[in-house]
Amino acid sequence: MDIITSANNKIVKMVRALGGVKGRDASSAFLVEGAKFVAELPKNWQIKHIILSESFAKGGGFTPDAIVVTDQIFAGLSDVVNPQGILAVVDQRTFDIEDVLGLGGDNPLIFLLEGINDPGNLGTILRNCHGLGATGVILVEHCADVYSPKVVRASAGSIFHVPFVQMALGQALTELKARNIPLYATSPAGSADLHQLDLRKPAAFALGNEHHGLSQGAMEGADETVRIPVMSESLNVSVACAIFAYETQRQRTV
Predict the structure, then answer these.
(1) Which residues of 63-75 are buried (b: 16+ CB within 10 A; e: fewer)?
(2) What is the pLDDT of residue 193?
(3) What is the DSSP track for 165-232?
(4) What pLDDT, on a 0 to 100 scale, did the predictor assign at position 90?
(5) Strand 29-33 and strand 203-207: pairing?
(6) How many H helices and E strands in the chain?
(7) Contact in structure between 87 and 48 (CB atoms under 8 Å)
(8) Which of 55, 111, 116, 175 has an alpha carbon 20 to 30 Å from 209's alpha carbon atom?
(9) CA-CA distance, 254 to 250, in Å (whole number)?
(10) What does DSSP assign to residue 49?
């Protein structure tokens, strides 16, 4: 079993670069870490390399064509405190608006995200969208990099099951209007109560930054503003996403 011992190895340097957005953009790849997530990678996501720590490989985790590095080098590649010893380098995928709308489905549920710059929140939103049947996600200005290790980890693998597209806000509004999909801007001061909406038809919800909310452009471009009736001033944005998605699916299954 060959083991890479040099931190200057070209593959090690490439994998290390994937920890930053510039490296991910340059390689059009990203990292997936952990035995469970690597094992569950769908076949339509292309794996470029499997990287193992020496301890993981010697413990029976060796797989054909895997690249083995010393434990010390692997620790420098990992984004977690106690790495399991396995990660994959995976090609990024490019989706288009039709993927997000459900490939011709007649009743999409879309989430438009603006300013969601916390990776944990973005990953959890993807997880909620997957678990609660959202059709897809549109990311507009000032969102975290969807392929960052923290987003991938927070999504718990859901990033591989929810189509997402990145575009300017104006283009997103145009795409939704062209398809007659109403956009609901979410706000604690929204004019409509969530439970007053008829969500049995196509719908898109715009979620904004927790501190600043949605931009004026997003608010003005929406068909209606909507609020969740709660006793506190606001909710975590990923919790709000789950509530909007759950209420939509509840209405659609009654």
Answers:
(1) eeebbbbbeebbe
(2) 93
(3) EE--HHHHHHHHHHTT--EEEE-TT-SEEGGGS--SS-EEEEE-BTTTBS-HHHHHHSSEEEE---SS
(4) 98
(5) unpaired
(6) 11, 11
(7) no
(8) 175
(9) 6
(10) E
Containing H/E element for 23?
Answer: helix 21-27
Closest C-alpha to 187, from 146, 145, 215, 163: 215
Torsional sign, CA 161, 239, 224, 212 = negative
Q: Is the pLDDT of residue 113 over 70?
A: yes
Tokens of 103: 């490939």
pTM greater than the 0.90 cutoff: yes
Q: Which helix (H) or strand (E) holds 83?
A: none
Q: How many CB atoms lie within 10 A of CB 84?
A: 19
The confidence band for 245, taking pLDDT boundaries of 50, 70 and 90, is very high
| Contact status, residue 132 vs residue 11, Cβ threshold 8 Å | no
Give every strand in the sheet of 183-186, ordered side by side. Answer: 164-166, 136-139, 109-113, 203-207, 183-186, 224-227, 192-193
Token pair in block for residue 85: 């010893």
For residue 194, the 8-state DSSP code is G
